[in-house]
Amino acid sequence: MQTSAVQKEYDFVIVGSGLGGLACANILAMEGYSVVVLEKNHQIGGHLQVYSRDKSIFDTGVHYVGSLDEGENLYQFFKYFGILDKLKLKRLDEDQFDLIRFDDGCEYAYAQGLDAFERKMVSYFPDEKKAIRAYCEKVVEVCSKFPLYNLETSGESYLADENILSLNAHDYIASLTDNVRLQNVLAGNNLLYAGVKQKTPFYVHALIVKSYLTGAYKFVDGGSQIAIQFSRALRQHGGEILKHKKVTAANYDEKGRITEVVCENGETFRGKEFISNVHPAVTIDIFGQERFLGVYKNRVQALENSISTFLVHISFQENSFKYLNYNIYQHHSDDVWEGIEYDKTTWPQTYFICTPYISKKGEYADSMSIMCYMDASETAEWAGTCSTVAEPGKRDAEYAQFKKDKEAKVIARLETVFPGISAKIKAVHSASPLTFRDYIGNGNGTMYGIIKDSTSPMKTRINTRTKIPNLHLTGQNVSLHGILGVTVSAFVTCFSFVDKEKLIQKVKNA
């Protein structure tokens, strides 16, 4: 280990290599700062990680992405980072990128583009033209209040608009029409944000739905390519990424500024500024509870995380199941908001189905991923165990059996959507809330971080600045989750160090 006399001091030390950390690192390195990213795991990328079993590649978090049509916001962001032309993408079906499906077998497709989406909805619900039009207009209106999503730095700010922050998604959609099925179709892909009927704000729904309507794509051969391209770009700009560096503490000077972070193995990394891409509650633990105001600490630690997930991965027998160039949101209940408050006996009531696109397979699917809600309490008895590539640990036979039982329930449900699918399955693997907790480093394996709450919007807002003068936050808890939300959050974090007008102009000029 270097002695502190000659130890390098970085301009920025970033803890965690999720998308937020990688995006911040690239922005700052492109501006000429020296940057190091410290990652505790064997693989970088947080929710962008993939793994392979039986020669099949599986995504853990990113199954498809929106806003990638030419000129759209994520398209421009990726262009600015210099990674757009290096990503292998496949556009989902024009007339049906998401399919909302109910127990009665009725299916409703989302078409790409707002106008096409509106026409498609009207074709299913001809008497509801007015409600559908009002819904589409509201989505556009609400998204216009979020300047960064429109690559603007000024304009009406949503933060000043209580009406936007406190408008509830379920209630607003229900106010448009008495047609319960239409209400459920419009909110039918709410697994994208783990929608909670009483809490989820409409702006969360609107920003996410609009992003997918403006260019929905899959990543060919897995989403980890985003992390790989970000890390290559970062190295080209002189930045560093170090794996197997689990940050556990920090040292401070007499003014209360962080001088260095300390890793589990005793190594230290000195820096002028520090950015945490780790969950805010975990960040408080790492950087020292006594360094934060009691009020802030209590508020952050009391914030409710969104639910976790049970993810089932199926590998198919050779050429047995046709590839689907769209996703399915299956609801076994007539209320699409109900699946999150599930009853164990009828679980899973709601789940997301997709077939990853593997370049060498062509018209047949290599595999299928099924994402179901799961509360972390179901895996609580194994909460004391840990198992990752970086920190290998064993879980007992009961845990293995628990996963097997859950997999069987999911496959039984799948049979109702695709009769005979069981005979085509070669192998089944799954990931539980514990898997996500261990790899992502958050309390309950939360899918989308802290729940946004329309009943108390400001309480769930996390500022990028902390009371520690040189510690900043980034990631899905800052503005919004998802590839687009986290990318936007990274820019918000970096506005503390880079002129925001100039930076957004660079994105527009890319």
UniProtKB/TrEMBL annotation:
- Domain Amine oxidase: residue ranges: 19-375
Write out the entry's keywords from A to Z.
Answer: FAD, Flavoprotein, NAD, NADP, Signal
Cross-referenced PANTHER family, in alphabetical order? AMINE OXIDASE DOMAIN-CONTAINING PROTEIN, BLR7054 PROTEIN
InterPro entries from the UniProt entry: Amino_oxidase (IPR002937), FAD/NAD-bd_sf (IPR036188), Retinol_saturase (IPR052206)
Q: Does the keyword NAD apply?
A: yes
> Is the NAD keyword given for this protein?
yes
- Name the source's superkingdom: Bacteria
The protein, known as: All-trans-retinol 13,14-reductase
